[in-house]
Amino acid sequence: MSQLNEKLVQPRESSGAMPQNLSEARKLLINFVTMTVCFSLNHASVTSCIALATSSGLPGNLGSYSVAVLYACYVVTAMLFSQVIIFYCSQKGSLTGSLAVYALYVASYLVAALVESDTVKWVAVLFGASIGGIGAGVLWTAQGAYYSENARLYALAKGVTKEEATGYFGSIFACFYLGFEVLLKIIGSVVGLYATGDAAKYAIYILYTAIAIGSTVGMTTVRNMRAEDTVGGDGVTIEKIDMTKKVLSALKLLFTNAKCALMVPTNFAFGFAAAFITAYIQGSVVSPVYSDDGHTDDEVADSQSQHDARVLLYSSIAVGVATAMSMPFFYLKKQAGTAVVMVLGAICFVFVAAMSYALDDGELRHALWIVYIVYGCGRSIWESTTKAVFADFFPDDPQAAFANIVLQSGLASTVAFFVFPDLSPLQKEVILGVTATLGAICFSIASVIHKGEQKAKEVEGGYMSVNDDNQV
Fold it and tell me: How do the pLDDT tens digits run along the chain, 472 residues long?
């Protein structure tokens, strides 16, 4: 074990001067693309089911509660157990296992669509959400580790730097990951539009379950990276990470660093916005669903199918906009500064709440495309700029910083999906609008604190430099 630890701790650098092995590089590239395609297809089927969770005709508040359970299990697993599981199961084993439980999560919705018993629906969907959340907590950590190792080996074979390989692989991953999410939601929307009668109740879930299972099988074909080569995505070895210390360091940063505490409203605003869109807009506003009173079974099924199709279509708009706007917001940040972009992200979420408040359901249905475009812009800013802010604010403790993103946003989503079904539309609108506004204000304060710290470091550095010169 000591020899293994020595191998894990030793840094491994890639150099552009190394000899090339183009055949091996090609195999590694194909391996990475295979992993990315399987990962992206599986994850896209899951996000499509999440989009449908509150609008799929499940009894009571089961749809919203199931997403809350999913997020809760995700946060707990990601914070406490993910890297331990990866160490004992390997990167490939963890990836394959996570996709398998993701497939069970998707299949739980198919079971709920096929059975008549409400009790069976509750048991199936909540069980699927629980293991799906566990899988999600492991999946992203395993993906980061596998990504890093595949890029390192590709760099060695290709004769390029690891930075070049990582950037190339990042572009490939983003293309497939976001592209398949949009594609599967559009395909699901088309299936929902044309499926009629009994088939309308479960056609979408058969499609997504088949894709989830197929992608899991595909993941078994990727290369199994050696245990001694396992390195986490942040460059910290899986073996040496103490998960208790990880959680404690995240909580210490949250409660002792004012900047981290001030970022809580921003992350809560994103979590609340996601729940507002999924649990309220997609569950109640997108389109009416007929009840059994006065309508035949086929009419009820067709109205549900049409509703699901619209939900997937609008959801694909948000994802597409978030993807398309990532680079424009990046350039806006360079030209106008981070504060402008962050405030703009908060305004996007306030706008969503304001539109919902100003219009009744019938009027809002005709303006939903605007709501989803603006929400997509807000999501784009949170996914990119907000995470970059954490990296800038806490360069000396990135692990604790990014653990706080998982903790804060995941906790907000968990609470919102549990609570929102019992709140009135006005209460949900106020919560989202106020939290997003507080996010902009608190970020501005945190930014001032950060600038003050940077100036203090510059002054201290100049003072030390002068003293060193005097000593010389």
Answer: 434 333 333 334 444 445 567 888 888 899 999 999 999 999 999 988 888 887 667 787 888 899 999 999 998 888 888 877 887 888 888 899 999 999 999 999 999 888 888 899 999 999 999 999 999 988 887 887 788 788 888 888 888 887 778 778 877 887 788 888 888 988 888 887 776 666 666 788 888 999 999 999 999 999 887 544 434 433 434 444 566 776 777 788 888 888 989 999 999 999 999 999 988 888 777 766 555 555 565 666 666 667 777 888 888 888 889 888 888 888 888 888 888 989 999 999 999 999 999 988 778 888 889 999 999 999 888 877 787 788 788 877 777 787 888 888 889 999 999 998 889 989 999 999 999 999 999 999 999 998 888 887 777 665 444 445 544 4
3-state SS of the chain: helix, strand, coil percent to 5? 85, 0, 15
HSE (side-chain half, CA atoms, 13 Å) at 116: 1
Phi (first) and psi of residue 241, to 5 degrees: -85, 125
Which residues are CB-neighbours of 89 under 8 A, at least 6 positions away? 97
- 272 is written with which tokens? 């609340």
Beta carbons of 69 and 133 less than 8 angstroms apart:
yes
- DSSP assignment of 161-199: -HHHHHHHHHHHHHHHHHHHHHHHHHHHHHHHHH--TTH
Could you tell me the pTM of the whole model? 0.80
Q: How many helices (H) and strands (E) does the chain have?
A: 19, 0
CA end-to-end span of the chain: 47
* Cα(451)–Cα(449) distance, integer angstroms: 6
Going 315 to 318 to 321 to 327, the CA torsion angle's sign is negative
CB burial class (10 A; 0-12, 13-18, 19+) of residue 330? middle
Could you tell me if 304 and 57 are in contact, meaning their C-beta atoms sit under 8 angstroms apart?
Answer: yes
